[in-house]
Leucine-rich repeat-containing protein 14B (Piaya cayana), 519 residues
Amino acid sequence: SAAMKSLQFISAEAFVSNAEFARKNLCGVARDLFPLLFKASYLLEQGEVIHDLVENWPLVDFNIGKLLGTTVDYQEDLSHRTCSVCLESCLTGLRDYVLNHPSSYVKRLKVVDLTGMKDVEVQFCRCKKTMGRWARTQLLSKLCLELLFCLQQRQCDPGIFEVSIDVLIELFVTDRNYELIVQALLKKSYCPLKICCVALRFDNLALQKFFYIIKLIDLSLLRKLEIVHNVRLEMEHLEILLNSIHFPLLTSLTLPARTFNVQRFTATDERMLNNIGEKMGEMMQLTELSVSFSILTGRIQKLLSPLKTPLKMLDVSNCSLNHADMVYLANSFHANHLEALDLSGHNIFDLYPSTFFKFLSHFSSVLRILTLEDCNIQDTHVNMLILGLSPCQKLQEFKFLGNPLSSQALKHLFTFLCELPMLKNVEFPVPRDCYPVGITYPIDDASLCRFDHQKYESVAEELKLILLQANREDVKASTPLFGSYDAAVQETKNELGAYLIKSFKETLEKFTTSLNKMS
C-alpha cells in the first residue's frame, strides 16, 4: 500500500519504472541506493533492471531475504514472491557479474544468500509464474556450468579467476535434476560461484545416487536435511550414513516413511537403533526431528534420549506409539521446549489421555503448531481437549482433519478457539454428520469426498461466522481434504506421479509374470 512507502521508495519506483532509462543511468547511482532500487524493481517486476543491478552489484553481500524483507523505506515483505521473471533475472545477473568487466568499481561481492525466499501457495506477482526451490536448484547448477563453459571458450580477463563468491542455497534434488547437480558439484572448485548448501531435500532418488550427492556436498554448513517420499532409506542405510559422515551444524532432520519398523526387530536391529540414537546425539545439534510413518512402538526413548539438545519440533505421526512412549515423552527434557508437535494417527483419548495431557501441559506455554489428524477425537472428548488447549496461548496453528466430530462439537470447539490470541490457521475435518451413516474412521481415500457438500458448506459458513462475531477474521479456517499445501510436493508432483505410475506398472508386470509361471 502507498501509505507504507517512503518518499525515497516512491522515487526509486519512478526511476526503475522506465527500464531503458534506469539501465542507462545505473552508473551514476550511489552504491548505498542499490538495495532500495532492487526492492523497487522486484515489486514492479522489472526483470532487465534487476539483472543489471545484480550484474553491477557494488556491495560485499547480496542477501535476497533481507533485501526483499521488511525495510525502512517499504514495510511490505516481498520474500514470498518467488516470481520467475525476477529470480531468473537475479541469477543470470549474478553469472554476468562474474563475466563482465566492471567499468567503475572493484568487484567486492563475496556472499550471495538465496535462502530467504519463502515458497507459498498464493502468488501475487503479475507474471503468475513461480520459481520454486527445485527450479532454483536447477537454474543455479545450470548457470555454474555455463559460467565454466564461457571461461573455457574465451580468453578471459585473468582477474575473473580471482573472483570467488559463496552462494548459500537450499538444494532440492530429485532424479530429474540429479545429473546436472552432480556436474555442478564436481566442478565446484573451478567455478567462481561456489554452491554452499545450507539445506538439502531429497525426493524420488535411488539410494546410490543419494549417497553419491552426499559425498560431493560440503556438509559443514548444512543445517537441514530432508529425505522424503521415494528415497528407500532403511535403518541400515541410515546407520551407514551416520557412521561415515559428519553433520556439525545439522539442527533439522526428516527421515522418509518406514525408515524404522520395530515389528520385525532382531537383536542386530536393536543394536543398530541404539547406535543411530547415539550418533544423532553425538554429532548433531538437532532441534527438529520428523520420523513419520515409521513403526517405533516402545522405542521412542532409544531414539530421543541420547540427543543433547532439546527438540523444538517433533513429528511422530503414524508411528504406533504406545503408553510407555507417551510416558517417556511426558517426562523427557524435550517436553518443556516443544513449539511444534505432530501426533497424528494415534488414538490419544482412548489409549493415554492423562499422559498426553500431562505431556502437553509441559510445553503449553511455548507451543505454536499442533497437529492431531486421524486421532479418533470424538464429541465426548471435546471438553477435555478444550481444557488441555486453554493454556496454549501462543498456539498459531491447529490441524485436526480426519476426526469423527459432529458439526455441533465443531461449533463448540470453534467458540473456544476464538479465545486463543495468536491463532492464525485452523484445519478442521468434514463433520461426521455430513458423511453417510455408518462411515468408519479413518476414512479411506475412496470415501473421502463422498459427503454432503451442501451441508458441509453451510456448517463451514457457521464456523466462519463464529470467528467473525468474535472479531477473529485473522483466523483462516479450511478443510484441505488431501492435506496441507506443500510447496516442494506441488513443484515436483509430475515427476512423483510418473514415478508412482512406473512402480505400479512394474508391480503389475511382476504379478502377471508370476501368474503366467503358475499357469
Notes: The CA atoms of residues 274 and 302 lie 6 Å apart.
